[in-house]
Design brief:
The protein is an alpha+beta fold. The protein has one domain. It is built from one helix and four strands. The protein has a two-stranded antiparallel ribbon with strand order 1-2. The chain is elongated and about 50 Å long. The model has no long low-confidence stretch (mean pLDDT about 75).
Length: about 90
């Protein structure tokens, strides 16, 4: 996976779960510290690692980010109404 001291592939399968204070989730009472830790790992860490990889990688390198279908649709489907189309 390394050639000429440059990385060819980055695989990023890390994340924090569960969601911030999921057991008692209330948007209006959610502590910002809980959300901050979640974003640090799931967004800022991923961005930082990818950025550093891009600095040392060659043009034909690949970044593979694993994700969950929950990024597309919440596991708590009841938070959506029957008609969740934006108008």
């Amino acid at each position: 996976m390394m050639s000429n001291k440059a990385a060819d592939v980055l695989i990023t399968p890390f994340a924090i779960n569960p969601q911030p204070d999921e057991s008692s989730f209330d948007l209006f009472n959610l502590p910002l510290s809980s959300l901050e830790q979640y974003l640090k790992v799931n967004l800022l860490s991923l961005f930082s690692v990818c950025r550093e990889f891009a600095k040392i990688s060659e043009n034909n390198s690949s970044i593979i980010n694993f994700s969950s279908t929950y990024g597309i649709r919440s596991p708590k489907h009841f938070i959506y109404s029957d008609d969740y189309t934006k108008h």
